[in-house]
User: Fold these one by one.
Assistant:
Number 1:
Amino acid sequence: MKSAARAIAERFALDGRLQEIAAYGDGLINDTYLATTDSVQEPRVIVQHINRRVFPKPEWVMANIEILIDHVEQQNMAMAAGRRTLCLPKLYKAVDGSPYVVDAEGDVWRALAFIENTRTLEAIEDLSDAEEVGFALGRFHRQVNALGAERLHDTLPGFHVAPRYYQRYIQVSATANRTATSALRASFNFVDARKHRIDVLEEAKRNGTLLLRPIHGDPKLNNILFDERSRRAVSIIDLDTVKPGLIHYDIGDCLRSCCNTAGEAPGSGERVEFNLELCRAILCGYVAEMQSVLTAQDYGCLYDAIHLIPFELGLRFLTDYLEGNRYFKVDDPEQNLHRAKTQFQLVASIERQQERIKKIVAELAGA
Ligand code: ADP
Ligand code: GN1
Ligand code: MG
């Protein structure tokens, strides 16, 4: 794959000549590479291969990203000088002028400007990091809200539609049930006890309580870039999943990722808890940006989102485990089961703190 990546990188109109290219990042879906060039201004470039099994229409993914980057750049330029901005990485064009490169297998690759002097965080360390995360997601939502969901393609039909994942799980687990170990059965029981909650956000969407808006789709902690020195959030990346959706999917996803400081794959014996103080700080930073957009109904569904999205992710990992690990990349065949159990532990922690989470939301709604 590395030599393929090199040949692909040569087909982009980069600033400077290509030097090295190496695998980069730890995403579970696409393949990411870091290329270096001899350019003084732009010595590093991110080159990515889009997974076509997951994104059946990669050209739509690219169209959404182009519209979004353009929109945010225009908004940033219209902002008063000195005001804080959230930037998105610019796309390099291919040598032939197209916005991406298609390889011999018909797969799509893109190249993005590397945002220098930034870092991602493995875990949130303090409340200031948490507020920065809230700023990043809130500013992103506020800026893309003005774009309108109808301008974006639905690149991943069913993404974050929890009842769809549940239906698939039911089909797949029916066969597995007969031979399940007791550990696996415990996960099945966990899901069964919560199946009545699975439709909560989709129902709110159907009855007009929640509206479709442009969303990021995957705002986990390591998709936010922080300034290396100030540790302020400067960018939100990994834009493949940008599409029309519920901002609640994003809020739930961001909180399940950031408030679980043990991470998606904790070591054995490590406790998985949902950290309330981090939750409060993230939501504070978020609401500071989104206050003018959020409705009473939006606040009313926040707890449901915080509870549902880790449950949904656990269900997705569990189903993939049962199907033989076809969707999420794994290093060992049991990894997706471990990831599923971790999300379920997080759900249990959220349930134990339900009243306190609702109180935080109520305080923010009244602020
Ligand atoms: P994935 O998670 O699917 O592998 P990402 O787009 O998140 O793909 O990229 C992987 C990692 O590469 C990120 O976590 C980040 O560390 C780094 N990265 C990606 N894009 C940029 C960018 N434009 N500038 C700086 N670093 C980036
Ligand atoms: C996948 O590609 P990556 O690792 O950023 C997944 C997300 C999950 C995440 C869990 C398109 O994101 O939905 O929350 O793994 N992306 C897709 O780590 O399914
Ligand atoms: Mg990523």
Number 2:
Amino acid sequence: MSKVEITDKILYVGVNDRDIDLFEGQYVVPEGVSYNSYLIMDEKVVLMDTVDARKSEEWLANIKVVLGTRQPDYLVVSHMEPDHAGSIAAVAEEFPDMKIVGNAKTFTFMGQFFDFDIDSKKVVVAEGDELSLGKHNLKFIMAPMVHWPEVMMTYETSEKILFSADGFGKFGALDTEEDWACEARRYYFNIVGKYGAQVQAVLKKLAGAEVNAICPLHGPILKENLAYYIGLYDTWSSYRPEDEGVLVAYASIYGNTAGAAKQIAEMLKEKGAKKVAIADLARDDMAEAIEDAFRYDKMVLACSTYDGGIFPCMEDFLSHLKAKNYQKRTVALIENGTWAPMAGKKMREILEGMKDVKVLENTVTIRSAVKADTVSALDKLADEVMNA
Ligand code: FEO
């Protein structure tokens, strides 16, 4: 078990998963992921969430080390997604007298996932309800759609600890040494990104509360400089760009479109762009390209025409952006087509359907390969991007 102390009486009992191939069936996690779970030891003992069924056994062993001869009185379920709820039946069987705390929706979903006798164990809570454990006291804060409808956060009022469910989570096992923001941002935009308004709503509810530590369901426990993390969540969930910069994302069949994309990326750097990221949408991690699209205020898309439309990986990228509520950004377009270039028109139609996305009027059209006239057109487009 990763040794993480939150306080004397609030102890980490979660697990790392370094064997998983794809988190949520789609995201690469080179450093794995942690499923966090906590025990609060007081007159009443509370277990905060379970873990993915893949790691039930290891997790139950962690719990027993901390519990000693005691038994948990309650299991609080913040979120029913199986990465956290996957071991509910196993722990209910292990501790038959334990009550399960959730809201009405939690129990609807629990019944859909499991067959054990839930009704005899359930304690239904709603917004603002409290549960006293002795010295500790839990207050429940509903956080619908951050990231499922039943999600709730829990604020422990005596030590001022926020159990934030998926909020403030990060990819990467707990024994990974890496920058928090990079993998927390990729996690946020891909998993919670669609629900910015709901994240804003919960940030407003939490605004008055003093918080000494944030205990999320994934990634490290945050104990210091909390304003930094909360500030990033405010930026991300309000869809404001975090940094001035440009993502150049390309979809290329034989490398000519890729060459144009790389050329404009260099031009942007020479013209003083603060940050330029580049993504090969056919080969690079799509989730990272989405992260960078939201991170920066501008984007250049370069795409080959295919079957009279957009090359598939670019179409996929745009459909992800639309689903995640991409907005408030400026986009420039480069298309390629040997006989009937159409990618620019089709990309523009999709982007113009997004909220507050300004698509620069001038599209650079490449006819097969980059020639001298394309280079000057790319240079002009780079100027327009810089001045937008
Ligand atoms: Fe980590 Fe939405 O589950």
